[in-house]
Amino acid sequence: MVNKKDLIECIKNEKDVDLLISIADPHHIHWGCSKAKKALGNSFPKKWIADCGDPFMMNNKLTSHKPKFEKVEREFCESADFITVPISSAPQMYYKEYRDKIKVIPQGFRFNLPNGEDFKTINEVPTFVFAGTFLSDIRNPTNLFEFLVSLQFIFYEV
User: Fold this and answer.
1) How far is CA 13 from CA 10, 18, 73, in A?
2) H-helix or E-strand spanning residue 86
3) What are the CA-CA distances from residue 117 to residues 28, 143, 154 (Å)?
4) What is the largest CA-CA distance in the chain?
C-alpha cells in the first residue's frame, strides 16, 4: 500500500494534471488522495473522481469499523469532485450529504445484440476475468457462473 507521504510526492511530481481517478478497493486509496488534496492545494489535479465498487462505511455487512473510519471516509467524500458507483442502489449506502456527487456507471454485460453491428467470436468457451476480492456472502461469483453456464448462446465482443 502506498503511504500518504509517497502518494503526495507522486502527485506533486506530476505537473498540470487535469484529472485524477482513484479506484477503491481498498478505500484507503481515496483517503490518501483526500490527504494529498489537503496538503497540495492548487498543485492537486483540477478534478478528482473516486471510483467505488462497494460502499465502505454503510455497507450493511460490517459495523465495527464505523467509529474508527468515519472521519476519513467523510473527508474523502467531501474532497472528491465525483464518486462513481456501479449500481443505482449504491448511493443510499453513502452519507446523505454527499449523494449529489455520486454518478452511477453500470458495469456488466450486454446480452442484446444491437442491430447493424458486426460481432466476432473471441473464444469458443466464454472467458471472464475478475479482479477484486471474493467474499462468500456479498461478492460470490457462484450465481453468475451458474447463470452463464445455463445460457444457450455464444458470447461475443463488439
Assistant:
1) 5, 14, 26
2) none
3) 41, 30, 16
4) 55
CB atoms within 10 A of CB 99: 14
pLDDT in tens, 53-98: 777 777 666 667 777 888 988 999 999 999 999 888 889 888 899 9
Cα distances (Å, whole numbers) of residue 139 to 61, 123, 154: 12, 26, 25
- Give per-residue burial for 46-84: e unless 16+ CB within 10 Å, then b: eebbbbbbbbbbbeeeeeeeeeeeeebbebbbebbeebb
Could you give the CA distance from residue 61 to residue 87 in angstroms, rounded to a whole number?
A: 17
**145 backbone dihedrals φ, ψ, rounded to 5°:** -65, -40
The CB-side HSE value for 17 (13 A sphere, CA atoms) comes to 19
C-alpha cell at 42: 492548487
Shortest CA distance to 30 belongs to which of 72, 85, 63, 62?
72
In the structure grid, which three cell numbers stand for residue 26, read together? 481498498
Mean pLDDT of 110-123: 66
